[in-house]
Amino acid sequence: MYDPIKLRNTSYRSPLQLSTQHGDFIANFTDEQAYIPLELVHNRSSLTLNDHSNLDQSVQGFMLSGPREKVAFQADEVKAALVTCGGLCPGLNDVIRSIVYCLWNRYQVKDIIGFRYGYYGLGQQGMQDHPPLSLNPKIVENIHHLGGSFLGSSRGSPSIAEQVDTLEKLGINQLYCIGGDGTMRGAQALAQGLKAKGIDLHVIGVPKTIDNDIPFVEKTFGFETAVAKAVEAVRAAKIEASSGLRGVGLVKLMGRHAGFIAAHAAIAAREADLVLVPELPFEYGVINGAQGILPYLQKRLDEQGEAVVIVAEGVGQGQAHQPILFKTDEQDASGNQKFGDIGVALKNALNQSFKQAKLAINLKYIDPSYMIRATTVSPADAQFAAQLAEDAVHAAMAGYTETLIGSWGGLGTLVPFAMLKQSKQLDLDQAIWRQVLESTGQPSRLK
After folding, report:
1. DSSP state of 104
2. Are strands 12-13 and 70-71 parallel, antiparallel or unpaired?
3. What averages of pLDDT result for each successive group of 10 residues across the chain (447 residues)?
4. Domains and CATH numbers, the chain
5. What residues contact 129, with CB distance under 8 A and at least 6 apart?
6. Inter-CA distances, 440 with 160, 265, 279, 311, Å
7. Are strands 133-134 and 174-179 parallel, antiparallel or unpaired?
8. Residue 178 — φ and ψ, nearest 5°?
9. Where in the sequence numbering do the catalytic residues fall?
10. For the whole model, what pTM was predicted?
């Protein structure tokens, strides 16, 4: 079994009034010997890494998350801090609120702060310009009704040395990092920096990305809400397309390296005629090629008078494919390659191609990306965000560190940061992509 790192021994009985007996009508603690088999992960390859040959063969399963009967902290010695990093995502405030509530009400922890604007808030400049906020249930009581992050968020970070210095001076011994894969890389580097100085500080990650591309995590909070909002955009594109003469509705959705939102939105909406995702090879010739986008859309327009196209933001660029409609070598503050706008590029290319072919087209372009990120969560996502947040607190209180709270089949898991080596992608051999093809009717490959 691949166990998460435990920084402290569990020397105290948990203050939670839970049980270890089944059938006594009292909710139970989670047994530290409870695991979910890695074989389940292998059998669900579309949800994990595509190349299983890179997996550590010693890994047989993930430990289940949840409250432990014995904990590593007494309430009065805990000094906890939260930070939200990267782009916005539905549910950030739900996670913040649930962590504070669980610490304060369940574990009686009264010393909680929130760093402002991501890892920037842990640096000298951030501490000076935007000091941390003291948090308690009253302060965060209603923040889950709002989108965005109550603490603010940003990309990039000051040096690890600066962050370590801030945490050491404040005496923080639990840090909850809420973010995507870049945030988790930063959290791991920070944990290593703390370890090098011998600082007793437990770092726990809560996975946040609407792209749903964190490996060994079945679903991230906000993803379900993002799909629901994306469906609204796809249906709006359908209305625009069907209301115009030879109308084409083009929707760009988020997904830098993975097409999960695009695929799930297409399946849910049942309105798309073509879905393009980063996992598919894409060259400029695919637009005008004999078996490309232009002839395919022309056929759809001739048959039904309208067409809807969904394209993920990472199509034709990034690590998997060279930029073909544009090129940029710039990076954002987190070190990610800045992508060109595939939506605008594809819109212009289609208009130009249809014009050169002397074919009529009435194209309407919709980009709902930032509306999706800033919305509040659905009830199911709110419940899921709370589950992840509470399991994060249970993990830190049990003495774990360098650990991400994952989820498989509705069960919470403890995933060591060391496992998060590459992004998760759609497996085009699996059922999810087959459903896309059945929904759209598009060919398996455009050439």
Report:
1. I
2. antiparallel
3. 82 92 90 77 42 45 92 96 92 96 97 96 93 97 94 88 95 95 89 92 92 86 93 96 92 91 96 92 70 87 93 76 55 62 88 87 92 91 95 97 88 89 84 93 82
4. 5-221+377-419 (3.40.50.450), 223-374+429-440 (3.40.50.460)
5. none
6. 47, 12, 17, 13
7. unpaired
8. -110, 115
9. 211
10. 0.88
